[in-house]
Amino acid sequence: MGKQLFGEGNIRVVSFGGGPASELVGLIRYLEDPASEEAVKAVHYVVYDKDGDWEAVAADVVSSIATKIKLETEYRNADAADETKMDKIDLSEVDLVIFSYIMSDLAKLEVREKNGPWTLDLAFTPDEHRTKAWLV
């Protein structure tokens, strides 16, 4: 598949709008694929979602993943339309940021002009401490 994205050791992943944590399944499959040449030993995975409705489902999904990679998960409440709360989230040590349905949900809420720049700034503003962050 080409160049490693993460290298060795532990990675930190944040998923906004992650719901049932289905993207974690895809990430683990990628990390375990010999073609990826990844050597990740542990994933610290944090889901930020506006509803707690998915938390139990996410826990079931994570517990059903058969992997040798150590998984640590957290489920936190956050609404992407709440700029004040979102500004407090520290991504300085995060290796992968996933936005799942966030852009389309914000557009549906008609807050694109109000909060769209926050989302873009979060994803694309260079930061000397966040040299490995990826946007999926």
Description:
- Helix 4 (102-108) runs antiparallel to helix 5 (112-124).
- The protein is of the alpha/beta class and 136 residues long.
- A 4-stranded parallel beta sheet has the order 3-2-1-4, covered by helices on one side.
- Strand 1, helix 1 and strand 2 form a beta-alpha-beta unit.
- It contains 5 helices and 4 strands; from the N terminus they run βαβαβαβαα.
- The relative contact order is 0.21.
- It has helices spanning 22-32, 55-63, 83-87, 102-108, 112-124; strands at residues 8-16, 39-49, 70-77, 96-99.
Short description:
The protein contains 5 helices and 4 strands; from the N terminus they run E-H-E-H-E-H-E-H-H. It is α/β, with parallel strands linked by helices and 136 residues long.
Set down the secondary structure blueprint:
Blueprint: E1 8-16, H1 22-32, E2 39-49, H2 55-63, E3 70-77, H3 83-87, E4 96-99, H4 102-108, H5 112-124
Parallel strand pairs: 1-2, 1-4, 2-3
Keywords:
alpha/beta; 4-stranded parallel sheet; about 140 residues; 4 strands; about 25% strand
What integer value in Å does the Rg equal? 15 Å
Low-confidence region ranges: 115-133
Overall 3D shape: globular
Largest sheet: 4 strands, parallel
Biggest sheet: strands side by side, in what order? 3-2-1-4
The total count of helices amounts to 5
Reading the helices and strands in chain order gives EHEHEHEHH
Structural class: alpha/beta
What is the beta-strand fraction? 15-25%
| Mean pLDDT over all positions | 79
In angstroms, what separates the terminal alpha carbons?
Answer: 17 Å
Number of strands: 4
What fraction, in percent, of the residue positions are helical? Answer: 25-40%
Oligomer: single chain
